[in-house]
Amino acid sequence: MKLKSILLTAIFFSFLFPWMEISTEAPNIPVKEFTIEEGLLPEDSASFPELKTWAIYQFYELEPDGADLGIQDYICRMIPETGLRFLLEKNPKNSSTVFLYLDLTRYVPRKEARFKSRKLEIKVNGRMKTEVYISKNRNFKNPVEISLEPFEFPDGKIYVELTPSKNESGRFWGIWDAFILENRLR
Fold first, then answer.
1. Model confidence, pTM
2. Distance between CA atoms of 30 and 74, rounded to whole angstroms?
C-alpha cells in the first residue's frame, strides 16, 4: 500500500511539473580519456585490477580512478621513463583562466613498504607548471589542478607533458584522465 501511494505521488508530480526536464546531454568539456589503443605496447596502458595487483605486491594501496565529471573507466595510460605528451584543445576565444585537471595514479605506501621518493614534472605548452611529489610521508591530492591563463594557449591547443624524474626506471606513474574546466572543480 505504501509503495502504491509513493508511485501515485511521483506520477502526480511528473504531470504537475512537465517543464522540469532533466538534461541527459553531456557537457561540452575538453576531455582526454586514456583507453587501450591499437598500436600501443602492453605496458603502455593498464587496468585498475592490474595496477592493484602490482601495488599489493609492493605493499602499496592504489587509489581508484576518480569519478570527477562521471569520467571513470579504470583504464590508465602509463607514463614511460621518457615521458608522455598529449593534446587537449580549448576554444581560443576564451578570455578567462581555465583549469587543467590531471587524474594520476596515486599509491599510498603501507607500513611495511620500501617506498622510493618520486617526482613527476608537468609542463604545459613547454612551460613548467608544477611538480608532483610522492614519498613515504608526502603525497599529492587527485585530481591535480593547474590554472592556465588565456595567453598560454592562444591557438586553443594545450600540449601537456608529463616527465618522471631522471633517476626513475620502469613505469610507476600513470594517468587515468585529463580535462579542462572554466570553473574550479571544488
1. 0.77
2. 19
Which candidate, 95, 101, 105, places its Cα nearest to that of 154?
A: 95
What average pLDDT does range 155-175 have in this prediction?
89
Question: What top-level class would CATH report for the domain 42-181?
Answer: mainly beta
pLDDT at 30: 59
CB burial of 146-181 (b: ≥16 within 10 Å; e: otherwise) equals bebeeebbeeeebebbbbbeeebeebbbbbbbbbbb
Residue type, 108: V
**Range among 51-65, 87-101, 167-181 with highest mean pLDDT value:** 51-65
The single-letter code of the amino acid at 136 is K
For the chain, which residues make up each domain, given as ranges?
Answer: 42-181
Distance CA 131, CA 138 (A): 13
What radius of gyration, in Å, describes the C-alpha atoms of the chain? 21
The C-alpha cell that represents 170 in the structure block = 620502469
The pLDDT of residue 41 is: 67
Answer for the pair 61, 104: CB distance below 8 angstroms, yes or no.
no
pLDDT computed for residue 154 by the predictor: 87
